[in-house]
User: Fold this.
Amino acid sequence: MKIQLNNIQVRAQHGCWKEEEIIGGDYRVDVWIEGAFEVSAETDDLEKTIDYVAVKELVYAEMKVRAKLIETVLVRMHRAMKVRFPNAHSVGIRLTKINAPMGHQVESVSVEMEG
Assistant:
């Protein structure tokens, strides 16, 4: 079974430019977690599944820690998810930077990992 949180919207100060540190930018985070959550579905027991609020709060906490590279944020967030949710068989995350300052208009830049 797969649990997905889509389009978690966050404002954060990641990036190589000083302006990004000061002004910040908009980010979107998608998380998918695979596991054997059928028991929780049958028993209606939150303790046997993944708490969506805990996932969202972990995303917010990791996004608050500034980094130059979104790749750094992604790896850090992925490690934290694996530790926080040991019953997950696999955790996938896509981190998207909206309107990355690149000199030309680019809608977004994303990095993704799963495992």
